[in-house]
Amino acid sequence: MTPADAPGPGDRPWVVRPSVEADWEAYRAIRLEMLADTPIAFLETLAAAQAHPDEHWRRRAANTSASSRLFGAIAPDGRWLGTMGGFHASDSPDPHLVGVYVTPSLRGRRHGVTDALLDAVVDWARPRSGRLLLEVHEHNAAAIRYYERRGFAFTGRTLPYPLDRSTLELEMAAAL
After folding, report:
1. Whose CA, among 62, 76, 91, 166, lies 20 to 30 Å from 19?
2. What's the sign of the alpha-carbon dihedral 122, 128, 130, 135?
3. Helices 54-62 and 24-37 meet at what angle, rounded to 10?
């Protein structure tokens, strides 16, 4: 599913891998960036994230939960260029794609960051279920176009967006 014009693994000036606790400061930096850049895409405000203690970031980056996995696209200097995660709630048969973000300068097919991150989440999710779910804000047209290009389709399920209940989160699913 990776576009033919995207750089191959040997051509990339970054690597996609699961996070480890030592990544906590870089993960915190990209999380704050993503909340400032695209606030409608996440279920947390920038102010709330800025108030978290260091231990919160260490726990999230440690990646020790069996029901979730956090991936980063990481530059040689340790900066996170993008992130995506998978979460499999005990009350759902299907895992969810969460925390999707790529720094603005690396968005688009020619860079390959977004596809590489999604491929990592798909590889993590595939043994857990036959499909991957996500929820996207109804006004996030760029994300919707990307998800559709990668095989996601609307399920018809909607939820009020928790930070503005006058708008909706739209559920999408892709077969694995």
Report:
1. 91
2. negative
3. 100
Nearest in space to 174 (alpha carbons), one of 132, 134, 143: 132
Fold classification of 9-129 (topology level): Aminopeptidase (3.40.630)
Which residue in this structure is represented by tokens 């996995």?
69
Predicted model pTM: 0.91
pLDDT in tens, 131-155: 999 999 999 999 999 999 999 999 9
Pick the closest to residue 18 from 97, 124, 100, 89 (CA basis): 124
Quick count: other Cβ atoms within 10 Å of Cβ 39? 14
The tokens describing 9, both together, are 């693994």
Per-residue confidence (pLDDT) for residue 50, from 0 to 100: 98
Q: What pLDDT is stored for residue 167 in this prediction? A: 96
Q: At CA 74, angle to CA 103 and CA 112, rounded to 5?
A: 60
Cα–Cα distance, 17 to 107 (Å, whole number): 18
Q: Which helix (H) or strand (E) holds 113?
A: helix 113-125
CA distance 20 to 22: 5
